[in-house]
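Issue 218. Parser rejects a valid record. Input:
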Amino acid sequence: MPVVLFYKRFVGTALILLLFLPGGALAQEDSTDEELSAEREALQRIETAMVEGDARMLLTPAAERVELTIFDMRSFYSRTQALYVIQDFFGSYAPQQFSFEDISCREDRCSATGAYAHARSEEDMLRVYVRLGLREAEWMLQEIRIERNTRP
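Output the parser choked on:
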């Protein structure tokens, strides 16, 4: 009798998993999932660009004017100007590691904060904040803020 009960539970659990896992009969993917996927893709591209120190990838795509704040020096730059400023930053603070820690997305805007480890100092982690906006169905980088980590 215990073998039959185990078999029934096993088959029941397997059927439920097959119905609800991605690709299953009841699995659904709506436009919200696609939008979230586009947000994740944009953030993944930014994360990869930060890890690789690739300013061009970081700014593709970006708004016409990008707000950059690096160590309390804030200004608005064209994409081309921003490219040179970020290349200079990566030259001075070569990346060792980067990952987003906090991500917040709403309909047409998304922001994320991450920790940036660089070659200059193992103890001096930098905080990076990015803001993206949805323009013509594409997530565009609007702001990058890099500051010294003030957290203990």
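Fixed in the parser; the record now loads. Confidence is low (pLDDT under 50) at residues 3-31.
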